[in-house]
């Protein structure tokens, strides 16, 4: 499945939207925003037209068809067929059915048994409204078991979807964290896991006359663990096809250079220390400088020759650091950032 963020051209940022919602003299803005969201985001299954029309999506799964053929459908039946197709598609794809996954984090009684996707028959709101204290937007919802969707996207993509309006800064941070955490989660590659299991099995099956019953039982337990680890991996049909046909599993439009962030950050910090990030270290430096001044008062200053030597060493060190963070063709990475 796919995660995506869509920026609306000319739209306000989430914090500005929340600020306007909280202002009492912006009722016109709130009304326009709610009408726009109700027109963009659907929260219930569209009504089925009473007019009888025959469609392929009635006999097979709606996702397996291409929908209404605009070119071969008469104009007076086009809208009727589209409405019926949308009804069948939304009912099949967007209606939530509880399963054991919904109660994945339920700890049992006396904790309430709530769907972790926050979909429930009781989640019904007859009208859309905004909370005057928090600025939170609640859309009209006539069916609590329907995943929110956009009709145009659903009709074109013909698959399950979920859409959410980001109307505040905290909500934007939450969704960015969720997507980043989701796409960067570590997953054991199938070929790596199989290779590791094969090596483990060979070692476990190796006969050793000195092994006692306890060692043999331990080997069998490790073997079962290895098999269990492989069998519990979730692989999509697309991934299986890619691996079997030896295709690539990711594509990028650009080539990227490696950036060793720790060295780069250290170099920037040396060139331009940040007082906000290093208050404690600056306090330590101030104490050290004060102590150093007292030492100078009693022991005198360094010789001029030592000053020049230290200066040369600092310049040489800075030059090495500058060259270390240069990319190919002597292009500074800092310039790209």
Summary keywords:
single chain, 337 residues, mainly alpha, two-stranded antiparallel sheet, 49% helix
Structure description:
The chain is 49% helix and 1% strand. The chain is mostly helical and 337 residues long. The chain has a two-stranded antiparallel ribbon. β1 and β2 form a beta hairpin.
Average pLDDT, all residues: 76
What is the helix content? 40-55%
Count up the helices.
Answer: 12
Please give the oligomerization state of what you see. single chain
Give the overall shape, derived from the CA principal axes.
extended
Low-confidence stretches: 287-306, 319-337
The structural class is: mainly alpha
Q: State Rg.
A: 32 Å
Main sheet, how many strands, which sense, barrel? Answer: 2 strands, antiparallel
Major sheet: order of its strands?
Answer: 1-2
Topology summary:
Elements: H1 14-22, H2 27-40, H3 75-93, E1 129-130, E2 137-138, H4 151-157, H5 169-183, H6 190-205, H7 213-231, H8 237-244, H9 261-271, H10 279-299, H11 304-324, H12 333-336
Antiparallel strand pairs: 1-2
In short:
This protein has 337 residues and is mostly helical. The chain contains twelve helices and two strands, in the order αααββααααααααα. A two-stranded antiparallel ribbon has the order 1-2.
């Amino acid at each position: 499945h796919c995660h995506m963020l869509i920026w609306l051209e000319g739209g306000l940022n989430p914090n500005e939207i929340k600020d306007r919602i909280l202002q009492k003299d912006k009722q016109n803005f709130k009304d326009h925003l709610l009408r726009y969201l109700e027109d963009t985001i659907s929260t219930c299954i569209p009504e089925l037209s009473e007019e009888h029309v025959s469609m392929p999506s009635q006999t097979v799964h709606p996702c397996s068809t291409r929908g209404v053929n605009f070119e071969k459908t008469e104009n007076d039946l086009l809208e009727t067929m589209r409405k019926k197709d949308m009804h069948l598609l939304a009912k099949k794809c967007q209606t939530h059915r509880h399963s054991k996954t919904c109660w994945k984090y339920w700890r049992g009684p006396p904790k309430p048994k709530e769907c972790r996707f926050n979909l429930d028959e009781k989640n019904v709101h007859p009208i859309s409204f905004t909370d005057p204290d928090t600025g939170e937007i609640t859309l009209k919802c006539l069916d609590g078991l329907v995943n929110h969707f956009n009709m145009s996207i659903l009709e074109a993509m013909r698959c399950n979807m979920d859409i959410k309006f980001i109307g505040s800064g905290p909500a934007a941070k939450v969704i960015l964290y969720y997507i980043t955490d989701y796409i960067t989660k570590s997953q054991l590659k199938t070929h790596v896991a199989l290779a590791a299991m094969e090596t483990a099995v060979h070692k476990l099956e190796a006969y050793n006359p000195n092994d006692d019953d306890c060692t043999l039982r331990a080997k069998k337990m490790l073997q079962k663990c290895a098999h269990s680890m492989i069998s519990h991996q979730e692989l999509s049909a697309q991934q299986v096809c890619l691996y079997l046909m030896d295709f690539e599993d990711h594509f990028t439009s650009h080539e990227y250079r490696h950036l060793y962030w720790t060295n780069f950050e250290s170099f920037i910090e040396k060139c331009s220390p940040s007082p906000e990030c290093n208050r404690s270290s600056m306090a330590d430096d101030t104490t050290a400088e004060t102590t150093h001044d007292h030492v100078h008062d009693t022991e005198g200053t360094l010789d001029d020759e030592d000053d020049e030597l230290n200066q040369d060493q600092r310049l040489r060190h800075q030059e090495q650091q500058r060259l270390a963070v240069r990319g190919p063709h002597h292009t500074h990475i800092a310039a790209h950032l």
